[in-house]
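User: Just a sanity check before I run the rest of the batch. Below are the structure tokens for the first item. I only need the designed sequence back.
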């Protein structure tokens, strides 16, 4: 009878069960944490690509020709992504300048493909493409010097 009571007491003993549960749950908790980091990095990249599109559109509005506007947008997008620490596997920057006339709108679309394996230690295969479009107005008062001077070289109308 005493041996049966001892075995029954051992079966009801809860000592060490918390350590065993923690040992079993630790890998799951670490994977959950890495997944949260992964999702946070995806959101961060999306926000940064939005900001890059904004910067590229603004740079394009400062140009004097449509070809220069496209070149400014591409150079600004590349530099902004590099300074943000985003390595695009492929980068596409397109600019719709609408003739780049005062009062017109310049629309820039930035598309950046990012490898998912670089985001966390999870080793997620594949890539994700982030795309953002931003429009910026060309200054209404912008023009060349000859537009704003009269025949005497003074500011004013023709």
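Assistant: Here's the designed sequence for the first item:
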């Amino acid at each position: 009878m005493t041996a049966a009571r001892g075995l029954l007491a051992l079966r009801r003993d809860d000592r060490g069960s918390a350590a065993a549960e923690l040992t079993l749950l630790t890998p799951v908790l670490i994977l959950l944490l890495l997944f949260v980091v992964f999702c946070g990095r995806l959101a961060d990249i999306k926000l940064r690509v939005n900001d890059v599109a904004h910067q590229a559109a603004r740079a394009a509005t400062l140009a004097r020709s449509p070809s220069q506007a496209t070149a400014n947008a591409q150079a600004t997008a590349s530099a902004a992504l590099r300074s943000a620490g985003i390595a695009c596997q492929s980068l596409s920057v397109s600019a719709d300048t609408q003739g780049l006339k005062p009062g017109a709108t310049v629309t820039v679309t930035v598309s950046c493909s990012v490898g998912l394996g670089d985001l966390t230690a999870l080793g997620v295969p594949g890539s994700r493409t982030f795309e953002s479009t931003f429009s910026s107005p060309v200054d209404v008062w912008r023009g060349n010097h000859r537009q704003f001077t009269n025949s005497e070289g003074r500011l004013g109308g023709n």
